[in-house]
Amino acid sequence: MSEYVPVPRLAGAVWLRNARVFSKLWRGALLPTFLDPFLYLLALGFGLGTYVAHINGIPYKEFIAPGLIASAAMWSSAFETTYNVYFRMNELRLYDNVLSTPVEVQDLVAGDLAWSATRATIYGIVVLAVIAIFGLVSSWWALLIPFFVVLGGICFSVIGYTFTALIPKIDLYSYFFTLGITPMFLFSGLFFPFSQLPDWVHVVAWFMPLYHLVEITRGLATDPAFWSVAGSALWLAVVSAVLFTVPVRALRRKLVA
Amino acid sequence: MEVEIGPAVSARALSKRFGDRVAVDGIDFDVEPGICFGFLGPNGAGKTTTMKTIYGLATVDRGQLTVLGLEAARDRREIKSRIGVVPQETNLDGDLTVRENLMQQALYFGIDSGKAAERAAELLEFSLLSDRADERIHGLSGGMKRRLLISRALMGDPELVVLDEPTTGLDPQARLAVWGALDRLRRRGVTLLLTTHYMEEAERLCDRLVIMDEGRIVADGRPADLVRGHVGREVLELRLDEGCDAERLVGSLDGRIQGHDLSERTLMLYADNAEALLEGLDHDAFPTESAVVRRATLEDVFLRLTGRSLRE
């Protein structure tokens, strides 16, 4: 059991390394994050929105805008825990050094996941600021969104990290993105609601973390229903906690053979 | 007051396999504290795997391994907090500066920042990198990177430092600088454990060493004793003419040599007095192109024990 419980101070050391490097590079990295939601709003909100005026009584722009916070967090987590972690682990071989200090695999994974969630939250906050400036946020509850983005970020990150710990070659990420991240982006209720679709669509969506984070961000940005937000938050927390052992075990097998 | 303490590292029947491949095949050794202990062997002999079991990047399959009195299989975190590791691959953090690499290492050891800054400054001095402290890694030469790796390994104030081929790929000046650093460390009482395939390095640095081949230890002792015991004091190296029958030559020297090796047309004759051996040679019966008398080295022992064929 103790081999799955991270030491906070050592996980923090891993987090700090990533934060330190990010603080040197953020200017270049953050600009696309500003542009991304802007482009989606332009194409879908103002373009498609001309034809689809309202969904569930909300203007279409306002319907999709909060979901873009969730998807930004997902994309950030997905890239951080795939390419970035892969590069640190297999190209730079940094983890061989980290693991020959008192840091153990569970501390390393926890620190990396915490960082990935932090980064996702930074991106989420940027998107929240952009859509608020466009007047697409109508509730003060939206100020709570970043806390839930942390949770969603952890959940996305655990999944990406697991994939990275298991794959032998970098080429396999195209499957992760094409079969995992992109379908989740398109079919998690971000762009259209499920209310008029068959029930099984809803059931499938329930298994996707992005669906739950979209539920939360849209709820808080418009008209929060407490139980829906709480239920989705619980889903994200439970899935993250349960899955945490998977990348720890996989990475241990890979690096401490 | 001298306190009696156990070995810094002790292995009994230590084994490690990866799938079907046996990397380490039941080895025994003891490293006394405060000495420099070497692992020699061709590529694939099991040196790096042995090192990794010591610093926790490989698990022990069978046998027993204790490091600083602790059980490697059980007390990994505790062991790692008391040792330093210089890996074979240069895995410095290229996104950080020289100083930041050291400061980051201190975080992994849980050292508070004030003390870490002090130690980093001291170690930059030690590795002659003070004037490069705020540069990025990729501007450093190979020798500087290696010195920084050594400094990084010292951030946790280790009692034992494990170095996997610390001078491979360095030019002679850079190698001397690394040797100097290792000498200073040993004088401070730090136990050093290193792998190398440079024989002069092993002869110069190691108080004791083992030669490994195919996962086993094939020789064990002090460098000078190993040379004396396996090949004698001197070597007569003969380059034979086409017509010279090596087997008959060796047969004619029966009792006067400690052993021989033939590789293509070069015959090595091991003896305590190679000069006398050369003088007594029947040059008409055994024509040679050239003859060299030289001091026997660890390299001769190494090649005798691990063979002359290529290892890949």
Radius of gyration of chain A: 19 Å
Question: Strand portion of chain A, in percent?
Answer: under 5%
Query: If strands are numbered along the chain, what order do they take across the biggest sheet of chain B?
Result: 6-7-8-3-9-10
| Alpha-beta classification of chain B | alpha/beta
> Approximately how much helix is present in the residues of chain A?
over 70%
Report the sheet with the most strands of chain A, covering strand number, pairing sense and barrel closure.
2 strands, antiparallel
Mean pLDDT of chain A: 91
**Class computed from helices, strands and strand pairing of chain A:** mainly alpha
Report what the structure shows:
The complex is a heterodimer of chains A (257) and B (312). Chain A has 257 residues and is mainly α. In chain A, 75% of the residues lie in helices and 2% in strands. Chain A has ten helices and two strands, in the order H-E-E-H-H-H-H-H-H-H-H-H. In chain A, helix 5 (145-166) runs parallel beside helix 10 (245-255). Chain B is built from eleven helices and 14 strands. Chain B has helices at 47-55, 76-82, 98-108, 113-126, 142-154, 172-187, 199-205, 223-231, 246-252, 274-279, 298-306; strands at 9-18, 21-31, 36-40, 62-67, 70-71, 83-86, 160-164, 191-196, 208-213, 216-221, 234-240, 259-263, 266-271, 288-295. Chain B has a six-stranded mixed β-sheet, with helices on both faces. In chain B, a hairpin with a 2-residue loop joins strand 4 (62-67) and strand 5 (70-71). The longest helix of chain B has 16 residues, at 172-187. Chain B is elongated and about 75 Å long. The interface between A and B is medium-sized, with 26 and 27 residues.
Task: Describe how the helices and strands are arranged.
The complex is a heterodimer of chains A (257) and B (312).
Chain A: H1 8-47, E1 54-55, E2 58-59, H2 60-91, H3 94-98, H4 105-133, H5 145-166, H6 173-186, H7 199-206, H8 209-221, H9 226-243, H10 245-255
Chain B: E1 9-18, E2 21-31, E3 36-40, H1 47-55, E4 62-67, E5 70-71, H2 76-82, E6 83-86, H3 98-108, H4 113-126, H5 142-154, E7 160-164, H6 172-187, E8 191-196, H7 199-205, E9 208-213, E10 216-221, H8 223-231, E11 234-240, H9 246-252, E12 259-263, E13 266-271, H10 274-279, E14 288-295, H11 298-306
Parallel strand pairs in B: 3-8, 3-9, 6-7, 7-8
Antiparallel strand pairs in B: 1-2, 1-4, 4-5, 9-10, 11-13, 11-14, 12-13
